[in-house]
Amino acid sequence: MSIILLLLCLNLLAHASTFHARPVTHHASQHSQWRSMKSTKEDAGAEPASCRTGNPIDDCWRCDPNWETNRKVLADCGIGFGRNAIGGRDGEFYLVTTEDDDPRYPTQGMLRHGVIQSEPLWIIFERDMSITLKEELMMNSYKTIDGRGFNVEIANGPCITIQGVTNIIVHGIYIHDCVQAGNAVVTDAPQHYELRGISDGDGISIFGARDVWIDHCTLSHCHDGLIDVVSGSTAITVSNNYMFEHNEVMLMGHSDDYVADKHMQVTIAFNYFGQGLVQRMPRCRHGYFHVVNNVYTGWEMYAIGGSANPTINSQGNVFIAADDDSTKEVTKRESAPEDEEWKSWNWRSDGDLLLNGARFIASGNVTAATYAKASSMVARPASLLSSIIPAAGVVNCRIGQPC
Question: Pathway membership of this protein (predicted)?
Fold first, then answer.
């Protein structure tokens, strides 16, 4: 291993250890203290050295000192397969003024009232909020939930469902301790409500939706998945999120028999998979998955897995295996021991850093053309991730201050 890669490994491992040492609290900003890894070389009166890191999303909007006035610029900063998600860019602002929730009769000022409206809306918050939903939050199309400026968490109840809709952005929300709910009437549009069955208990459930972008959220401790993308969903980007302390992190694809997911395209980019994660980062079925420029700081079972012949294009990631010799393998195929069909599945590792004994078992075709449908952006060199990744999770933006 070269000196540069060794230093990168030590830097990322040291940083990961700070999360183990830090007590887990319920303040989103405390889960985004990544900037200690960035350069501290700043000139008085000059643009901060931490402003531009090579992360194309953040470099698009965070250097603007008037980010709060120009919030909607974010909608033009997307990358990957979900880059066309504009959320509520073309609509008015909606201000959440209360933590209260009424699944059947939501009123003005509630988060639920904003997300069910028919017109595009850019939803922002009046102050720090901890919202405990009584039933899953059913979103309508063309909505942005933008938590920048305050500590906003959705926790200790059902969480977000993005079902059968399009053009959704969720940014800057701490989502944790999500639970199942259901067998209840829930309003999902101004003139429509329905009896919902029992929900899965995901942090964010994306079901039969397209053009969805989940960015700069912090997620942990949910009943089922942190972010699940299923049932014909496509054109999805999951970026800049910090995920920790959870078992089944991300499921991509409804079931091995649900062939409609063959059209699924998902980009997973610039995320930090932190301490206490077990598996599914992600677990994929059928479709095309670009896993690019993420940092993995250990996994208890495996990092990337799948079944039903998904195409997985792993590029420019840093995989830091745990010290346990039984968990060095990055990949896992779900197939019968005697079935060698998996050897034809197109899974490649291109420019990944495999550290502390991490192993990635590639399969299928090695030619780049094979991965065209699983390519959504240009990967940055994995050696640059110590400066690109530090802003993952909820960013500590305060009104009137640089972000």
Answer: Glycan metabolism; pectin degradation; 2-dehydro-3-deoxy-D-gluconate from pectin: step 2/5
